[in-house]
Amino acid sequence: MSDAATARRELWLAIAVGALACAVRAYYLARLGGQYHPDEVFQYLEPAHWKIYGYGHLAWEFEKGARNYALSGLYSHLLRAGDWLGLGRFELHRALWCFDALLTLFLVPAGWRLGQLLAPARCHVAWILALLGAVFPVFGYFSTFTLSELHALVLATWAHVLWLDLAAEGDPRRRRLLALSCGLLFGLACTIRYASAVLVVVAGVDVLLSPRRRQLLWFGAGFLAPLLFIGLVDWAEWERPFGSLREYLRVNIGENYAAGHGVEPWNFYLAQLYQIFGASSLAVGLGLLAAVAMRPRLTLAWLVPLASYSAFAHKELRFALPLLPLLLAAAVAGLDDVLGRVSRRWPATSARRCLTAAAGALLLWVLGSAFWAVQGWSRGSKRGYYAAQALVSERADASGLLVGTTTFYTGGYTLIHRNIPFEFFTWELAEHSLFNYAAISDVNQIKSMRARRDFELIGSSEGVYLFRRRR
Question: Is residue 389 within 8 Å of 383, Cβ to Cβ?
Answer without folding.
Answer: no
